[in-house]
Amino acid sequence: MQIREILWASDGSNESRGALRWGELLAKRLGSKVVAFTVLETPNLSNLAVAEDLKRELTAIETKTRQRETKRIERIKELLLRKGFNAETEIATGIPHEEILKVAQSRPVDLVVMGRRGLNAWARMLLGSTTAKVLREVHVPVLTVRQSAGKPTVKDILVPTDFARSDAAALDWAMGLAGEFGAAVTLLHIFEAHKSWDSVKGGSMGRLRDAATKKLQSIIAAIPNEKRKGIVITENVKVFPRPWSGIVDFARKRKVDIIVMSTHGRKGVPRFFLGSAAESVIKNAPCPVIAVKR
Ligand SMILES: Nc1ncnc2c1ncn2[C@@H]1O[C@H](COP(=O)(O)OP(=O)(O)OP(=O)(O)O)[C@@H](O)[C@H]1O
Ligand SMILES: [Mg+2]
Description:
- This protein is an alpha/beta fold.
- It has 9 helices and 10 strands.
- Strands 3-2-1-4-5-10-9-6-7-8 form a 10-stranded mixed beta sheet, sandwiched between helices.
- It is globular, with a radius of gyration of 21 Å.
């Protein structure tokens, strides 16, 4: 598996710092370059009649912010270099998600790493708007990390699937990671238990689960041998009211280290929207999530 550059988007928040620790884990194993990136958000005054003295004041603040942020990001780079990483910095000015997308495109970035939330985090908000927008539009996988995620380690990887063809890319990524880290992979399908399913007989439910299990087994059997390389892969089927809640519950109970999933499932049609299961899993998962574009 090759990850040439890991783009670490940093707004100086604890969340994004936590994300860097996961970025480091991957970079170390895969020999990736870490690009420490920050976007300076400056107020847009172009449509305002602002007096000269006020303009000067704002410019002075901007200069100070730029110096402070440059210092911060350069210091992190120095720390990374000292730890033996290949590291670089990038600083842009503008709207964070737009700039993150631009750099991800202009450099050989194979993974974006960011906090699930950032500096503005209100207690109730589970997913920051920058992260949400990057997830919607980015062309490479994105690793989102919540602050309370444990010590970075990749031993157990969870790959949820609703049998969409697009899930192949996520499984591929998970297998690559598993090969690098000697991790185990669990393929999980959640049966969405509709209200009307209350009347499904116990025996029929069992048969449905068997069918899903068979399907998962056939997906596993189709993985080429050179990718299997001794990786332990198991399958699991659960019934839950919503797919995302089943995935999150499984991740919590089994203490999986990381979830790798497709941004869109079977139902996801519009190109620029994040599938609802992916979004809810990212918001609620106890562990980091790698969202892989279909
Ligand atoms: N200016 C920025 N430069 C670089 N990365 C950023 C910047 N702002 C946000 N990020 C990245 O996005 C992650 C989530 O931050 P985000 O801005 O989405 O959430 P927030 O600050 O909590 O909420 P808000 O949507 O109100 O800004 C951060 O952890 C960081 O990785
Ligand atoms: Mg923010």
